[in-house]
Amino acid sequence: MGAKKECNILPEAEEVKQVHKYVRLNLRQWGTTKESGEHLLKSYPTQAAQLEELISRTVQIGESNSALVIGARGIGKSAVVDTILNSLSSSGVLGAGLAVRLSGLLQTDDRLALKEITRQLNLENVTANKVFGSFAENLAFLLESLRSGSKETSKPVIFLLDEFDLFCHHKNQTLLYNLFDVAQSAQAPICVIGLTCRLDVLQMLEKRVKSRFSHRQIHLFPSDKFDPHYLQILKLLLKMPDSMEQQVILLNWKKSNGEIKHNDKVYSIWQGHKYYHGESTEAKWILTLCMSNINEASPYLTSEMFSSSQSLMTSEAKTNIFHGLSVLQLCLVVAMKHLTTVYEGEPFNFEMVLREYRKFSQRKSTMQSFDRPVVFKSFDQLQCLELVRPVDNSRGVQPEYRLMQMMLPTTQVSSALSQLSGVPTDLLQWSMAHTF
């Protein structure tokens, strides 16, 4: 017994690896696990009840239905539907019902979709020895197999169409037309549920398809409650399995997580992502970046890890370009910033930028002054990097006098320069100076 107990006591490094492994597993499987599904059902009780009723009526009394589930990407549309199906299956309500899952990203035309439906309904052997002259004939045969028998003897089929808007781009929308036609005419007990992030998806349907759709829409909106909705997500993502309950590192892990959740800095970061993005996908990326900093020296999450991850997630692509700019190009960016501020966002040209740059280089003897061709070449490179662009009505004008606009907010210039190493002090002070 004693030897067995010693084997269960893992070294510190191995325990850290185990914690790292389970948190990464939670991050990958969020939206597919039982805990995340139950959390989503609590977040959308009304919508979940509507979906459950639709599917139950199809399975129990053979009533055909169709509906669209509309919500932002990552909000949990597929997870809600999957959780409902799993719940109905475990309770025995689903019975002999079948679920057919299609994706607009994978089934890029109706022929591929029909082939996938045949595979998931286990009808390959039935169609293997048949030769179909056209797509319509093949589809008619498959639908006939769904219609065979009475409502009591036919197996109910639940069609889940992920990325529903992509199916609208298929030629003539044949698949959608036939599925909705079967659902409307009650020829076979089927339930067609489309999942999409497009609010205008109904306008994408042809008239004949739209006339056969029930126009039932179920919207999933982001929760407006930060606490406890988002904090509960954080708790579930950091949860460890029961098998680790007795390990010392797990006790310290739980203690540090409790401190993290009540840390003001972490709270504000988590809250900011909720208000900016409205769903948990971005928050998962922050936690993933934090977990990449976990090691033997720092085995627990800290507020500094969240801050650094937040900085990486919110960094601007255009400000990152500053790392590859020369001192002359940085001077031109600051000159354009001051011109934009002075003229209240009005466009400028190269001559105006050159004049501002020369004023600065003449005031500061430590700054090297470059000739006009060199300055113009640097200005042209900034245009290639899309930090500036010509206005629409400036075509046909000489390059030196072409009106340009800065494609970077002036408020980000000083902050971006302050994060660079090796920037001359005079240039940094000039960027922070107020121009009147």
From TrEMBL:
Top-level lineage group: Eukaryota
An annotated GO cellular component: cytoplasm
Zinc found in the keyword field: no
Alphabetical UniProt keywords: ATP-binding, DNA replication, DNA-binding, Nucleotide-binding, Nucleus
Statement: the UniProt record of this protein carries the keyword Nucleotide-binding: yes
InterPro entries named in the record: AAA_16, ORC4, ORC4_C, P-loop_NTPase
Chief location: nucleus
GO MF annotation list: ATP binding; DNA replication origin binding
Any single GO BP term: DNA replication initiation
Residues in Origin recognition complex subunit 4 C-terminal domain copies: 232-417
Subcellular location: Nucleus
Ranges of residues in domain Orc1-like AAA ATPase: 47-193
Family classification: Belongs to the ORC4 family.
Protein name: Origin recognition complex subunit 4
Source species: Meganyctiphanes norvegica (Northern krill)
